[in-house]
Amino acid sequence: MVIYDSIGTTYNTTRRPDPRVGARINAALGGARTVINVGAGAGSYEPPQTVLAVEPSAVMIEQRPAVAAPVLQAFAEAIPVGDNAADAVMALLTVHHWTNLEAGIAELRRIARRRVVILTWDQQVTRRFWLLSDYLPEAAAFDDARAVPVERLAALLGDARVEVVPVPHDCSDGFGAAYWRRPEAYLDPAVRAGMSMLAQTGEEVIRPGLERLAADLDSGRWHKRHADLLELPEFDAGYRLLVAEL
Questions:
Q1: In terms of CATH, what superfamily is 4-245?
Q2: Per-residue confidence of the chain (246 residues) as pLDDT tens digits?
Q3: Is 170 within 8 Å of 246 (Cβ atoms)?
Q4: Cross-strand partners of 242
Q5: Cα(138)–Cα(187) distance, rounded to whole angstroms?
Q6: b/e map of 90-103 (b: 16 or more CB within 10 Å)?
Q7: 67 with 84: CB under 8 angstroms?
Q8: Partner residues linked to 162 by β-bridges
């Protein structure tokens, strides 16, 4: 079963593209005239020059807007298009779901003429995020097992450059660390459902940590402990763009 057939039903509600994150992705694409989006989901961050999306989940495909690029239901490891099919290929927060990383990266390089752009996260940084370190170590352990080391990705891509993608304090895209300054959001089941890290770890497993978070919010302990975060406009939670020139 494709993972997002079960956990992707709320994406159009909780995973709305953030324009500041989008600007960094567009800059990384470097003026490409044609783009293929692999692991495209519901189409977040697809630039207007996207000519094709590749997505394995029917649930995610159904959530794509009518005006979105044409979509192929296929896996990253076997993309049914010809070589050098677009100027650039992008793959956003998807490589950790692939069953064969080497095959998937080889496919991205095969179908891109000029550039490959991947958005992922550095688990060594992300696991220090307060939600994981203080409340949900089980979710951190889950991501330890599936996260792809940035160094490994860069090597497979061929000496890719790595760019930090800070998370705005009011980020509209509800990925895992989006609510670093809005902790109450993690108590909302609909918000959690849009985060594969939490949805796949499981509600039974994370419930005790969420109860501790709720208690700390009620008592004011969280705000006292993390007062330094409350004035920050953005936060490095470990998200990284890898850009490889071909």
A1: Vaccinia Virus protein VP39 (3.40.50.150)
A2: 454 444 445 556 678 999 999 999 999 999 999 999 999 999 999 999 999 999 999 989 999 999 999 999 999 999 999 999 999 999 999 999 999 999 999 999 999 999 999 999 999 999 999 999 999 999 999 999 999 999 999 999 998 999 999 999 999 999 999 999 999 999 999 999 889 899 889 999 999 999 999 999 999 999 999 999 999 999 999 999 999 999
A3: no
A4: 118, 162
A5: 16
A6: bbbbbbbbbeebee
A7: no
A8: 242
